[in-house]
What we know:
Strand 2, helix 2 and strand 3 form a beta-alpha-beta unit. The chain has 8 helices and 7 strands; from the N terminus they run βαβαβαβαβααβααβ. The protein is an alpha/beta fold. The radius of gyration is 17 Å and the shape is globular. The protein has a 7-stranded parallel beta sheet with strand order 3-2-1-4-5-6-7, sandwiched between helices. It is 46% helix and 16% strand. The mean pLDDT is 96.
Amino acid sequence: MSFEGKVVLVTGGAQGIGRKIALEFARQKAKVVIFDVNEESLVNVEKELSNHSDCLVLRANVVFLEDVEKNINKAIDKFARVDILINNAGITRDNLVLRLSENDWDQVMAVNLKGAFNCIKAVTKGMMKQRYGRIVNISSVIGIMGNPGQVNYAASKAALIGVTRTLAKELGSRNITVNAVAPGYIETAMTNKLSDKVKQAMLSRIPLGKFGSPKDVANAVLFLASENADYITGQTLVIDGGLI
Length: 244
């Protein structure tokens, strides 16, 4: 898969799964734009990306449409277009529903769902004009199967699947595909904070007998964004090792 000449925007791309996705695109010669709110991580990932391709890292908060549009314009000023959007920015604020605050609900929905909407809205007009675009939304198996203590997260990730299926129908006539990936248990700094007991309980439910890596998710994202997936749209690819 070659992405030479393509311009890719990865939100939440300075750390975790987003960082790995951005690096894999860079290794395939894409021009990479990263949105993130963590300035220290942005500095670090810029050093890594610049070893492989031309890049632009921007401090952008996807919750605010005005901020998204301002930074999309910076990307277009530098690279003239955006071909591929990866909606990866996401947060968790876990608690059982009786203890979950309104603010924790609102924050998760704002970043995980409204953030994706803002970025889609900002890039779609250009994609329609050029009659080409690839959008991949990072959902989660939690949005499919649910999980106690994550009602806000599950709702946001389930909603992304609905967004994916709907926009595939809206944008298909302009040669824009919209797909989602739904990772299961992926080893990241966030999941590494879980106790050994919780990790073992989760591992026992995975038929492949191992946790996934950010590279596993990146491989799927690159496939869906590539020419090899030209006739795939409106789909959700689950990456969970067979989690039951």
